[in-house]
Amino acid sequence: MNLKFIKTDLILGIKSWLRSKGTVFWTILFPVLLIMIFGAIFSDTGNIEYDLVVQDLDDSELSEGFVYILKNISILTIIEIDIDEDITEYMLDEDKSVALQIPEDFSEKLQAYFVNTNASVNLTFYVDPSEQTTTGVIKSIISGMLYEYNMGLTQGKTVIGLEEEKTLGQNFTYIDFFVPGMIGFTIMTSMIYGSIERNTKYRKDGILRKLLTMPVTRAEWILSKMLFMLFLSFISTFVIILVGVLAWGLNIQINIFFFVIVICTSFMFSGLGMIIGRFVKEEETADMAGGAITFPMMFLAGTFFPLDQMPDFLQSVARLLPLYYVNEGLRNAMIHADLDKTLFFTGFVVAFTLIFFIAGVFLTKWKED
Amino acid sequence: MVTMDARCPKCHKIATFSGKPGERIKVTCPECGNWGWVTFNGSTSDRETAIEVSHLKKIYGELAAVNDISFSVRKGEIFAFLGPNGAGKTTTVEMIESIRQPTTGDIKILGEDIQMSFDKVKEKIGVLPQEFLSFERLTVQETLVYFSNLFQRHANIDSIIVSMDLKTSENMLYKNLSGGLKQRVGVAIALVNDPDIVFLDEPTTGLDPKARREVWEVIAGLRKRGKTVFLTTHYMEEAEYLADHIAIIHKGKIIAEGSLDELISRYGDESILRVKNCKSKGTIDILRSHGFEVKTEGNGNIAVRIDYKERVLEILSILKHECVDYDTIDIRRSNLEEIFLKLTGARLSEGAT
Ligand SMILES: Nc1ncnc2c1ncn2[C@@H]1O[C@H](COP(=O)(O)OP(=O)(O)O)[C@@H](O)[C@H]1O
Ligand SMILES: [Mg+2]
Q1: What is chain A's mean pLDDT, rounded?
Q2: Residues A161 and A216 placed together within one structural domain of the fold
């Protein structure tokens, strides 16, 4: 392994990147601009409304009071259903993604609390797992409301809980949704275009031919280029998060999955760029092919708006797109802190990465005809 | 040891020299003291041969881009591969550089069969691919450091910069350089590992005459530093100016090979002196009576074949002595363009060069 070359390649790669105003714009300023604009447009989430199905099995004064509080939350539209209705069937029939069930013993347990402070009661939260953005938002709203309710009732001790409660007091906003999508999108475009440049421009300019005559192995070349691409990915990600936190109070968690997804995404889309470069020889045409792939993918994979606001047909298209898994993986890892879903989406991300990167390396023609 | 007879180009006396087969030595004419180079015939050993190509062939579909060519390049010489566009120059040189796979044939570089052990050779060669462009946003100096760090062997980068006359532009970004400077940087990149053999594929194509001259000086400098240079070009002046040995390639075949003088004496006509618009009758007979080979050309010019350049003076004094009246005189030697035309019926270059 020629470490000296890898080091030089990385340092000079960064230098020439900094000298290219265009690429600096696309990898840093563009996502920052988008975050500022979209954040400003959607920071007032009051005009977005979510349907919440509520079934009050208790039907007491206390539970009615609780439902009344829910009704007063401006972005929730409460749909009350009868006791004898099957809640999951109702959700399916009426195409509702979230429901809250107040148990029969709600008022009983609540009153018991004042005798025995160990008593508590759980509300059941029904969610359609495919519509996790909406459910995440609603869940966080209810959690916040419960927190205050409990506060008022017991000075902080939880008497009313939510079943399968994982998101703790987070308050999701559009920016929480948007930032992970922006990270996925930015990494995707800079990887694809970088890789296309290496596989078309460098071929035309004779740099790839020259490499063949020099003592550098294919592995060393790919490794040093990927180190540079990872540098770009992390710079973009870091700046996006920083702006999200400073400007919009973004609340994120950085964990191992976050890193796994960022690294995988870099390799995945570099591989996709290599595949494009294999079939389209001209740089301009290849750039267009890159745009033809990234642009629809950006919209379809839930970068700017939640998938569950799209028609079913497009939702099933989204599930075929690698960027969808990147976006959802990042959201679950960074924002929702939902380990099961994070694992699920990260698994897909890793699989896509292996396929695209390996195909890219093997399809790339190193020798000339 | 072999011996060889050589005629002094100045006094035309023949002298005998001896040396090793394939060796090239500097000799002095025993008669007039003029000096020149003599290359001894005979089989050349690996020690003297930089590149040896035998029965090399590259087929693309129906087309034999390179069609069974064999040649060898001696160490320390500038070998020019001369041919028009599409002749097969790049295909050949890229097979030697192991960038393309030959259909059949053997290639040895510095005694190593590149099919088996090209990796051993990589440190010893420097390559400037055709139409090469380096990284746009690195300076000249950074570019050379970049490529240098790929090799174990290093030349001193500062001295490359000086010898390629790049000192004033060393901190400029590559993309801002003129075409001629870019090509000089390309040659400089090919030198970062202090290679024994330098391959330059059409290094001056697309340059203006001044920039072309500057690149020529740089290439001529490589020979002085003992490098072997494999140069491809479609400019006959480039081959004439630079090459020790020229191979003319046409439609994938080598149609002529040798030093410039050898090619001219083998395929070219002798030099011709033309007396233009001669107004005196009987000039032809007078010249013939002095033993010259004379003919009249279609436009009425008198063409006199010249075997030795001293005879030009003789002709001039005859013309003066006989009070021959004429407009101008011009003397021309065959050039590679004419040889190419004669051998192929085609022109070497589209432009009027
Ligand atoms: N990769 C290729 N596929 C098909 N034909 C090729 C390829 N490369 C070169 N050729 C053909 O081979 C011939 C020689 O090309 P080349 O070696 O580039 O010529 P030169 O360098 O002398 O201009 C040309 O007719 C060219 O079209
Ligand atoms: Mg060529």
Answers
A1: 85
A2: no
B88 lines ligand 1 (CB under 6 A): yes
Expressed in angstroms and rounded, the spacing between residue B106 Cα and the centre of ligand 1 is 20
Residue scoring higher pLDDT (A217 or A153): A217
Checking if the pLDDT of B37 tops 50, the result is: yes
* Number of independent structural domains in chain A: 2
What is the spatial distance between Cα B92 and Cα B100, in angstroms, rounded to a whole number?
9
Instruction: Using alpha carbons, list the distances in angstroms from residue B326 to A26, B4, B181, B330.
Output: 74, 44, 47, 12
Q: What share of chain A is helix, strand, coil (3-state, %, to 5)?
A: 70, 10, 25
- Ligand 1 and B65: CB distance under 6 A: yes
pTM over 0.80: no
Q: For B303-328, how does the pLDDT look when each residue is reduced to its tens digit (9 = 90+)?
A: 888 877 778 888 888 888 877 788 88
ipTM: 0.77
Q: Are residues A228 and A357 in the same domain?
A: yes
Would A20 be classed as within a structural domain?
Answer: no
Any domain includes A15: no
Query: Which positions ≥6 away from A74 have C-beta within 8 Å?
Result: A46
Which of A213, A228, A366 should we substitute to test contact with B (largest number of B Cβ atoms within 10 Å)? Answer: A213
Quickly count: other Cβ atoms within 10 Å of residue A341's Cβ. 19
* Residue B283: both structure tokens together: 């000039």
Residue type, B59: I
**Domains delineated in chain B:** 2-42 (no CATH), 49-265 (3.40.50.300), 269-336 (3.30.70.270)
Per the domain annotation, does A249 fall within a domain? yes
Question: A77-100 pLDDT, tens per residue?
Answer: 888 898 888 888 888 788 777 888
Q: Is there a domain that residue A64 lies in?
A: yes
The alpha carbon of B351 and the centre of ligand 1 are apart by a number of angstroms equal to 20
Q: Is the dihedral of CA B136, B138, B139, B143 positive or negative?
A: negative
Q: Where is pLDDT greater, at A63 or B158? A: B158
- Which positions in chain B touch A12 (Cβ < 8 Å)? 135, 138, 142, 145-146
Mean per-residue pLDDT for A342-347?
A: 95
Cβ-Cβ contacts under 8 Å for B238 (sequence gap 6 or more): B80, B204, B212, B216, B231
Q: Say which DSSP state A26 is in.
A: I
CA distances (Å), A68 to each of A79, A145, A159, in order? 12, 12, 18
Q: Is A216 in the same domain as A324?
A: yes
Question: Which residues, at least 6 apart from B51, have a Cβ–Cβ distance to it below 8 Å?
Answer: B72, B73, B79, B96, B107, B108, B109, B197, B228, B230
Query: Domain ends where: A166, A194, A220?
Result: A166
Chain B residues touching A203 at Cβ < 8 A: none
Dihedral sign, Cα of residue A205, residue A211, residue A213, residue A218: negative
Per-residue model confidence as pLDDT tens digits over B55-75: 999 999 999 999 999 999 999
A214 and A74 assigned to the same domain = no
Range of the domain at A178: 174-363
- Split at pLDDT 50, 70, 90, the class of A168 is very low
| Residue A211 contacts residue A9 (beta carbons within 8 Å) | no
Residue B351 has pLDDT above 80, yes or no: no
Q: Going by C-beta distance under 8 Å and a sequence separation of 6 or more, which residues neighbour residue B156? A: none
pLDDT tens across B82-108, in order?
999 999 999 999 999 999 999 999 999
User: Mapping DSSP to helix (H, G, I), strand (E, B) and coil, where does residue B199 land?
Assistant: strand
Task: Give the count of beta carbons closer than 10 Å to the beta carbon of residue A333.
Answer: 28
Give residue B84 CA to ligand 2 midpoint distance, Å.
Answer: 9
Cβ(B264) – ligand 1 distance below 6 Å: no
Q: Model confidence at B350, in pLDDT bands (50, 70, 90)?
A: low
pLDDT higher than 50, residue A169: no
In degrees and rounded to multiples of 5, residue B149 shows phi and psi of: -70, -5
Contacts of A238 (CB under 8 A, 6+ apart): none
